[in-house]
Write a structure and sequence with these properties.
By secondary structure, this protein is α+β, with helices and mostly antiparallel strands. The chain is 46% helix and 19% strand.
């Protein structure tokens, strides 16, 4: 067997393969013999008919096609091993006209090669900037007090009241939504509770409840959705609503005292709580700053690297992003943004994988076993064990690469 390789764009190659008639004959003979044993001739036991009759019953075209499949499989295995290729998609095979040989072309999509930029220098530069930024991390005015207010609100009691609803009350409603007299899918809610005035629903809906008393009589009104409504099929439409305001509840916030603070955790007093919150908020801000610089470092490395991403890899990431984000906007602009984000993520993954390979940072079996045990409760959220394994592998690989880039000790998974 002889073959020639032609490099194509986007991590594809074309492999032209030629078998001489003598080289291809064993494939034909093998399929021919295997096919004879499956032929049934009336009047003869299976496999006992004369060869002349058996040959007449065989389909020469089917035998050739099967022999060609075997030759393609063997040539693909040989070429990929000799070239050290990882093939990531089913090859496209085309038989070529050749009077002397059995010739065909295989178009293969390979795991892309990555020519890294100077990732060490980029990481060092970004780390210096990060360290300066971390020194500037500070609390905003009133930030701790806002968190304390949030805690009080989360512990608020609701008390049924006999008065008109106002903002900050909890209301219970049942809602019917109609579009030109037809029910809107997902637009009917029963005994739904929410805090009035938080803007949870279509603009203008909650205002219709302010000042109203609980009553079995529905409140009827119409609202326009506008051009940017999240459901594309309902944009720029007038929707009709019928809302029954079933109950109004007043929210009673607990008083901020040392006794209340002790119910939130192991805090001695209000000052102790605020100190703990201050430390927690600062720590969270620093983590966000670090994550931002991790992403920027990878983006900078991608910019300086040479990567040809195959379409199939981009399409897979695009489909995953589309599914995971439950995209409702199907406009061309939204589609293009998602494509750009898909390419960005693919290249980021490839860069991390390449750095891991070059610096010998790939996860060890012991690290994988430990992490799999630690994340065992998450296993049920994945369709297959393979997906779960890939998820764990990616967590460890990312951690090791970033620990290397930013000269930080690895933390427990």
């Amino acid at each position: 067997m002889k073959y020639e390789v032609e490099k194509l764009a986007k991590s594809q190659v074309k492999v032209s393969v030629a078998y001489t008639i003598e080289e291809f004959k064993p494939y034909l003979d093998g399929v021919h013999e295997a096919s004879k044993s499956n032929v049934t001739i009336p009047g003869f036991r299976k496999g006992m008919a004369p060869e002349s009759l058996t040959n007449q019953a065989l389909n020469p075209h089917a035998i050739f096609e099967s022999a060609l499949e075997d030759a393609v499989r063997d040539s693909l295995k040989q070429v990929s091993e000799e070239k050290d290729w990882t093939i990531i998609d089913k090859p496209a095979v085309e038989l070529k006209e050749d009077t002397k040989n059995i010739s065909f072309e295989m178009t293969l999509t390979l795991f892309p090669e990555v020519e890294l930029g100077d990732y060490r220098a980029l990481a060092k530069k970004n780390q210096a900037t990060l360290e300066e930024n971390l020194k500037k991390v500070a609390l905003a005015e009133g930030e701790v007090d806002k968190t304390v207010d949030w805690l009080r609100n989360s512990r608020a009691k609701i008390v049924l009241v006999d008065r008109a609803a106002k903002n900050e009350d909890v209301v219970q409603v049942s809602i019917k939504t109609m579009d030109e007299g037809k029910p809107v899918a997902g637009g009917n809610l029963s005994k739904e509770k929410f805090i009035l005035g938080k803007g949870r629903f279509l603009a203008g809906l909650e205002e219709q409840l302010v000042g109203k008393l609980a009553s079995p009589e529905p409140i009827k009104f119409s609202l326009n959705t506008g051009a940017d409504y999240w459901q594309e099929n309902l944009r720029n439409k007038k929707l009709d609503f019928e809302i029954v305001l079933e109950a109004v509840y007043e929210r009673e916030l607990p008083e901020l005292t040392d006794e209340f603070v002790k119910t939130l955790g192991k805090f001695e007093n209000i000052a102790d709580l605020k100190k703990n919150l201050e430390e927690g908020i600062l720590a969270e801000k620093k983590i966000k700053e670090e994550e931002k610089f991790k992403a920027k470092t990878i983006e900078d490395i991608v910019t300086q690297s040479k990567i040809e991403v195959p379409d199939i890899m981009l399409n897979r990431f695009f489909d995953e992003l589309h599914a995971s984000n439950q995209i409702h906007d199907h406009s061309e602009e939204s589609h293009n943004k998602l494509k750009i984000e898909s390419e960005k993520r693919v290249k980021g993954h490839l860069v991390i994988s390449k750095i891991s390979e070059v610096e010998n940072l790939n996860p060890t079996e012991a690290e994988l076993d430990e992490a799999i045990t630690h994340h065992e409760t998450e296993k049920g959220t994945f369709k297959t064990e393979g997906e779960f394994y890939d998820y764990i592998y990616g967590i460890i690989q990312n951690q090791k690469v970033f620990s290397f880039l930013f000269n930080k000790p690895e933390t427990a998974i």
